[in-house]
Structure formats: C-alpha cells, structure tokens
Amino acid sequence: MKRTEGNWLMPRVHLVLSQKGGVGKTTIAVNLAAVVAQTLGSDPAAPTVMVASIDPQASAVWWANRTDLDTLPFDFEQVDDRPDDVAALKKREEYEHIFIDAPGSLARPAVLARAMDSSDDVVVPLILEPLAYGPTERTVLDMIQPRGLPYRIVRNLWDRRDGRTDLELTTKWLDTQGFRYTNTVIRKYKMHSTASAEGRVCTQYPSGRTASEAQNDFLQLALELGYGGTV
Ligand SMILES: Nc1ncnc2c1ncn2[C@@H]1O[C@H](COP(=O)(O)OP(=O)(O)O)[C@@H](O)[C@H]1O
Ligand SMILES: [Mg+2]
Prior knowledge:
Layout: E1 3-5, E2 8-10, E3 12-16, H1 25-40, E4 49-53, H2 59-64, E5 75-78, H3 83-88, E6 97-101, H4 109-118, E7 121-127, H5 133-144, E8 151-158, H6 165-177, E9 186-187, H7 190-198, H8 209-224
C-alpha cells in the first residue's frame, strides 16, 4: 500500500547520507533496496523499488555497469546535477520505496539540499573508527537535525574476528552524542565487497550459511527501519 499525500501516490524516499566516503552508503542503499524489493514481492519486470544515485563520482553507476540491470530486483537511475530531477523523485508514483545514494562529499550542494527536502528519512552509515566520528557528527548536526528529518545511524563493517572493542567504543561515542542508531549492526563480509565489485546484490548471493547470514543483516535492518510492510 502506498502513502498518499493530496492526490499523489507517493513513494517513501530514504536518503543514505554521510559526509564520509567509504562508510557503506552505496552498499547499504543497494542491499536495502534488494531486500525490500524481495520482501514486497516486487515484480522484476516492473519494480516498485528504485535506487537513485546523486553521487557525481557515481560509484553506484560503476557498480550498475557491472551488473545485468535486467536481473536486479529494483530499478536504478543516475540523477545528474539537476535539482528539479531530485525533487521529482517524490512524484514517481510507480515506486513504493526510493533509496537515494548520496556522495561522500559536499559536491552538488543544490542537489543534496533537494534530496534532503524530498526525503522521508535518512540512513547514516558509520564505520567503527574514530576518524569517521567527525564527519558523522557534522552530517547529523549540520545537515539532518536542522531539517528535523528522522534519521538512524547504522554501524557498518563490524568484523567479528576483531572482537567487540571497536563496536563498543563507537556505540559509547554515539550514546555520548545522544545520536540515534539502529540495533542492527551490518557485519563485514568478504561477500559484500566481492559482490559490489561484481555488481551483485545480497539477494543474488549463492545459497549457503554465510550468504544467508550476510543477507540477514540487511533484512533485519530493513525491518527495524520499518521498510518491510505497509505504512
Ligand atoms: N558490510 C560490509 N562488508 C564488507 N565490505 C563492505 C561492507 N560495507 C561496505 N563494504 C565495502 O567497503 C567499500 C566502501 O563501501 P561503499 O558502499 O562504496 O561506501 P560509500 O558509498 O560510503 O563510499 C566498498 O569496497 C564496499 O564493498
Ligand atoms: Mg558510494
């Protein structure tokens, strides 16, 4: 069921945002889109989920060029430096969910501003390293909170073999800041980085225990964020 506002059937727009590069924005945008499309039973011939990249470096395009777009469970579009095109995403009534993959820089400020104005909520990936704290803090304090947008930080790239220290330190920092974060932590799996190089998404992993564990993080995240069911 789609949300309505006025006479529009409106998609829910989720912005995946961080001023820091390499934290998993593209990975989280495409894999959330994949599990949500699968959960909704989206028809691959007419997907109800879309990933829109506003990253001028277009890592997602790089990624999409490596994949067979026809086999993806969601649509993919690169949005150029045209703020009106970003605002128009909200009116794409053929979609239930649109994930915007943002750049890891403040390039294209007008496009980014429109993306924030058009979004219903923001997902902020965070890696478990102190050097990521500063950019994350600026993302929340300077970009998200002034607009009153609901957001959740998602701790990404936890390598269980490293133990819990980095995870605990990062969580403590989040608590000290009073920032909101999901219970779900996205673990580090070689499969995710290989897949992104190959242009695959987690719903396309070969079956097996590791693959389903890896997939399950995104499924759990989608559920926790409330993207799974009707609104
Ligand atoms: N949970 C994860 N497990 C393994 N590799 C990951 C994970 N999240 C991200 N990566 C890898 O880290 C790198 C940066 O991720 P990416 O999604 O491109 O970040 P961003 O879009 O924020 O720059 C990529 O090589 C990606 O494959
Ligand atoms: Mg990216």
